[in-house]
Amino acid sequence: MGSGSLGSTTSPDGGRTFSRRWVLGAGAATALTTGLTACGSGGDSGGAGGALTALVYGDDAAKVQQAAVERFNASKAAKSTGATVRLEKVPGSEYPAKLRTAMGSPNAPDVFFNWGGGSIKAYQEAGQLVDLTDVIEGDPVLKDGFLPSVLDAGALGGRRYGIPMRGMQPVILFYNKSVFTEHKLQPPTTWDQLLDTNAKLKKAGITPFALGGADIWPELMWLEYLVDRIGGPEVFARIQNGDSAGWGDPAVLKAAETVRDLVDDGAFGKGFNSVSYVNGGAPAVFAQGKAAMHLMGSWEYSTQLGKFPDFAKKHLGWAAFPEFDSGTGDVRNVVGNPTNYWSVNARTRNKDAAIAFLKDCASQAYAKDLVANGDIPTTSHAAELLSSAPNPEFAAFQYEMVERAPAFTLSWDQAVDPSVQTPMLTEINKLFVGQSTPSRFVSALKELK
């Protein structure tokens, strides 16, 4: 979900439009092979020297990675490993398919940008990735350089295959401060408080939550947080690791029932299924005071700043998702897009050089470049840099939120296997619009393989 997956925080829709395109079939991938030449691994294993290729999603944020390449190529590490790195930028909409094609060719990249989770599962199963678990544990720069919840979020089956290389984008409960002040409300910290707040808002003729149901993925955020708060991160971790029976966990059913209760109670209004986030509908409903709250990725701030700057600067508030009464999940847990990752091709000609290059992502210079680009770094000591962020208060809130999180669950539609992604989203939408019941929803998901 969102631009933490696919672009800089200035993307109006968070880059979300492209976040599912890595499921393109082989035919589409073949049609997009033009432009990937002279990549680094070339089928060799263990040879030294030469130029390594780093394949990156080619948006505005790629300038941060370009600066990292230039630093590395001028560094002692480049000299000692006998290698340099060349950055290859691929236009965003083409990236997933071109990566897939490249990874199946003799000219596969040595290092490549990805979203973690399901986006690299096929490569991991095919033995195409370097398992970085022991490398990270044995290197203080990598082990201590990043927030633990973000490092863990990029793992598969408890093993780490990625190094964080872009900004974090947690899902946040945004609220309209003016509406809350007028009606003497506070951001809810428990589920009972949320329901009480909903009742007061509806009585005042205000829809509690904006929701871009036409896009479906904003609905997903509700289930992600509810399953976490009710059953803890272990519930979805089981599903992410390929056990479809995990959908039968009681926490999933309870989350689905809670969603239906919210819909039936009017928490999202009556027309949410025809409202889109991508075309600006849901942000407008929120900014214009027709809805008091909006559960959305952290890119909501930049979206509002671009579309409704006065609202963003004066009236936009933010808070954590509330605790669920009797739930076992830690209220500090976060869902969303932890970050993007660099992974290393198992066929790289110079593993030592590739890993030396990845270490730059833990540097202050790299973190400063991210902040200057409007991103919130996932490095351990980034807090001191956030005073120069576009909105220091919001930047600090995000960073502290993720820093304190025992777990950061990757957005479900990026975490699951590509074959599961679309049918899962279809079932979620059916639940929200009343075409399915909570029990049928669970049964349908358990059938997804």
Automatic annotation (TrEMBL):
Organism: Streptomyces chromofuscus
PANTHER family for this protein: ARABINOSE-BINDING PROTEIN-RELATED (PTHR43649), BLR3389 PROTEIN (PTHR43649:SF14)
InterPro entries: Bact_solute-bd_prot1, SBP
Name this protein carries in UniProt: Extracellular solute-binding protein
Any Pfam family the entry gives: SBP_bac_1
Highest classification ranks of the organism: Bacteria, Bacillati, Actinomycetota, Actinomycetes, Kitasatosporales
Superkingdom field: Bacteria
